[in-house]
Amino acid sequence: MQKVYRNILVLVAGFCVLQLLFHGKVFITIALTVLLLSAVSEKAAVFIDKWWLWFGEKAGKVNAAILLFLVYYLILTPLAFLSRIGKKDPLQLHAPEKSNFIIKHHRYSAKDLENPW
């Protein structure tokens, strides 16, 4: 039960911070209402806590989707376009005229196998 009241205290503190930032009477009214309801009734405190956690979960899913969308379209898409402009094929995805085999002129010795990592 102590965790429930800790969550409600954080919720009330958050609304008080919003009150200080935006100077609206709505935030302090909500903070006082939540505080009084949770102080009067334990069931109301549990209900407010469950509702707040549900709301936080849904907001987190929406936030994650928006952030992934922005990262994909603002960072990865321009990088892909820039790499296509470069005309290089570092992964050798396009088949060359002769072969994909690369000849290395290196004579392996015992020293090459001492620390393979």
Q: What is the N-to-C succession of helices and strands?
A: HHH
Instruction: Count up the helices.
Output: 3
Name the poorly predicted regions.
Answer: none
> How big is the Rg?
29 Å
The main β sheet shows up as: none
Q: What coarse outline follows from CA principal-axis ratios?
A: elongated
Instruction: Count the beta strands.
Output: 0
Distance from first to last alpha carbon? 52 Å
Helix content: 55-70%
Helix and strand content put the structural class at mainly alpha
Beta-strand percentage? under 5%
Give the rounded overall mean pLDDT. 88
Task: Please specify the SSE layout and strand pairing.
Elements: H1 2-22, H2 25-40, H3 42-85
What does this structure look like?
The model has no long low-confidence stretch (mean pLDDT 88). The chain is elongated and about 80 Å long. Helix content is 69%, strand content 0%. The chain is an all-alpha fold.
Properties at a glance:
117 residues; mainly alpha; 3 helices
Summarize this structure briefly.
With 117 residues, the chain is mainly α. 69% of the residues lie in helices and 0% in strands.
